[in-house]
Amino acid sequence: MKTLYKIVFFLITSCLFAQSTFDYQIQLNPVTIPNFPGIHSYAFAQHNGKWLIIGGRIDGIHARQPFNAFPASSNNTMIYVVDVNANQFWSASVNSLQTSLKEQLQATNFNFYQDGETLYIIGGYAFSATANDHITFNKLTSVDVPNLINAIINNSPISSYFKQMTDENLAVNGGQLGKIGNTFYLVGGHRFDGRYNPMNNPTFTQTYTNGIKKFQIDNSGSQLSITNYQMITDAVHLHRRDYNLLPQAFPDGSQGYTISSGVFQINVDLPFLYPVDIKESGYFPQTSFNQYLSNYHSAKSCLYDAVNNRMHNLFFGGMSQYYYNGTTLVQDNNVPFVNTISRTTRFADGSLQEYQMPETMPSLKGASAEFIPNKLLPHFENEVIKLDEINENEFVIGHIVGGLSSPTQNPFSVNQTNTTSANATIYEVKLIRNEPLNVHAIEGKNPFSMTISPNPTTSNIVKINFNMPYATTIDYFISSIDGKIISDGEIEDAAVGNNTMDFELDNPSDKIVIVTFIFDNKFYVSQKVVIR
Q1: Is pTM, for the whole model, over 0.90?
Q2: Domain check: are 140 and 216 in the same one?
Q3: Are residues 149 and 41 in the same domain?
Q4: pLDDT given for residue 5 in this prediction
Q5: Which residue of 141, 201, 408, 466 has the lowest C-beta tally within 10 Å?
Q6: 349 shares a domain with 310
Q7: Residue 4: what pLDDT?
């Protein structure tokens, strides 16, 4: 592990006072359902106002010790149906299911997506009695949502409402599953088998997906199958897990997704800060912008304002490398629990801006929680809420359900994970139309730049010119056009201001390579180089 430290970060990320571009107050109203348990890192679906909750964990954040991390005794072995309006829930045990279903459906950190009345669940991590080890499950399971909900409410058998298939390409946890058109996108994540170990001792094997897996699912018959499988790899920009995948309406009217932050960078055990857009036409790293106030998977809500062509993304609590202490932005590389509510907005010209909202979470909550949207509101197929079509001045956009709760910011780093717990309080999230508010706007622009010449080149040695607004570390990667890393290293002796250096492209047999410089472990700049 890298040395962890806490500093006050003044130089690049300053806080500005700006007029709001989001004229709503956020109100959180706690909802207590008697005897409903705390839960986090689960999969969910909904139908006719009722929620279906599968898998996840009922303890707090995982322990540091391998023998104590992710105990099977804290797996969620119940499937819950929740009627939040009636303050009521029902449950059924997964133990009535066949072994392969029972084992997967009590896992954590699934990749899941609700497609109409079907919930698809891929992967997940948990102890498998069959394997006699903790594994990432190589399974895709489909769930008949309305019929399973009815069966659980009526205390009827549930086994007929699941189908399952096996595919090693689907052994992923900590990623996210989305859909554009008829194609599913399994984005990021990793395969992790064995016991967690913070010291990287050989109690596990881990392989990052480093990409996007695209395919179609055939759920029409008695057996599940996938077709048209395709893997897109980028070991630099798509080396991500435990992030938020944001459904988006882009300025051109198309729908897709944005990868928000996530962990861990290849060169350092810190979160990525810049987002990556995913569209039907490809993926697009947005390295000119950094998001500071939300870095791990948390509850989030995405809302589009068609009148102003603005895409708003709200993040509720969670864990973050940066947070505000009053008006001072603090950098804490332990990536602590925070109570921040923040927003990113994409404007009509494609530019991005981050804001600290005036409201906060009631405590250090939101990490590994899910936001269950109010489907009675007008929304796109990908569940982005159509904000401009809502006429009411007050309306519920959804509920924050479950997640982790911590009494302190950094329980993991001081070996106090037993003080954390799974949150049982549900929060109704309401927007209240208000006069424009002044909010904190965070400077997220990338201050570093780089040019490579000549480009195209006939030599494997090029000149790289880059600007250094302040002295800091520089790492680099050279990757192939198919996303594999060819070489990496560090740049030394760079000075503040403009720098020019001769740079050797290590593998001139590749006709196109991508050179990426990473400044200060947070700012990425990539350039494609054509070799003739």
Answers
A1: yes
A2: yes
A3: yes
A4: 29
A5: 201
A6: yes
A7: 33
Residue 9 has pLDDT above 70, yes or no: no
Q: 505 and 404 in one domain?
A: no
Instruction: For residue 1, tell me if it sits in a domain.
Output: no
Range of the domain at 387: 6-442
276: number of Cβ within 10 Å: 25
Contact 348, 362 (CB under 8 A): no
Interatomic CA distance for residues 168 and 231, integer angstroms: 13
Half-sphere exposure of 368 (CA within 13 A, CB side): 27
Say which residues have a Cβ less than 8 Å from residue 353's Cβ, sequence separation at least 6: 21, 344, 345, 347, 441, 442, 444
Q: Identify the CATH number of the domain in which residue 418 sits.
A: 2.120.10.80
Strand 183-187: give its sheet, edge to edge. Answer: 176-180, 183-187, 211-218, 225-233
Position 8 scores a pLDDT of 36
Between CA 343 and CA 331 the distance in angstroms is 18
Q: Please give the sequence-ordered ranges of beta strands (E in DSSP) within 159-203, or none if there are none.
A: 162-166, 176-180, 183-187, 190-194
DSSP state of 384: -
**Is residue 411 domain-resident?**
yes
Are 187 and 207 in contact by the 8 Å Cβ rule? The answer is no
Q: List the alpha helices (DSSP H) in 72-224.
A: 99-104, 145-153
Give the end of a domain, one of 442, 477, 503: 442
How does pLDDT run across 394-403, given as a tens digit for each residue?
Answer: 999 999 999 9
Q: Which residue has the tokens 């897996």?
A: 213
Domain co-membership, 190 together with 211: yes
Residues 357 and 482 placed together within one structural domain of the fold: no
CB 41 within 8 A of CB 24: no
Domain tally, the chain: 2
Angle at 483 between CA 478 and CA 484, to 5 degrees: 65
Report which DSSP code applies to 436.
P
Q: Is residue 160 helix, strand or coil?
A: helix
What SS3 class is residue 96? helix
Does one domain contain both 431 and 460?
Answer: no
Contact between residue 198 and residue 1 where contact means Cβ atoms under 8 Å apart: yes
Torsion (CA) 15, 17, 23, 26 in degrees, nearest 10: 50
Question: Would the pLDDT of 19 be above 60?
Answer: no
- Last-in-domain residue among 442, 477, 492: 442
Q: For residues 487 and 504, is the Cβ–Cβ distance under 8 A?
A: no
DSSP class of residue 227 equals E
- 3-state SS track over 47-83: ECCEEEEECCECCCCCCCCHHHCCCHHHECCEEEEEE
- Helix H, strand E, coil C: the string for 333-359 is CCCCEEEEEEEEEECCCCCEEEEEEEE
How far is 36 from 88, CA to CA, in rounded Å?
Answer: 8
Q: Give the CATH number for residue 522.
A: 2.60.40.1930
Residue 458 and residue 431 share a domain: no
User: Residue 201: its pLDDT value, please?
Assistant: 80
Is residue 399 included in any domain, yes or no? Answer: yes
- Residue 110 is predicted with a pLDDT of 97
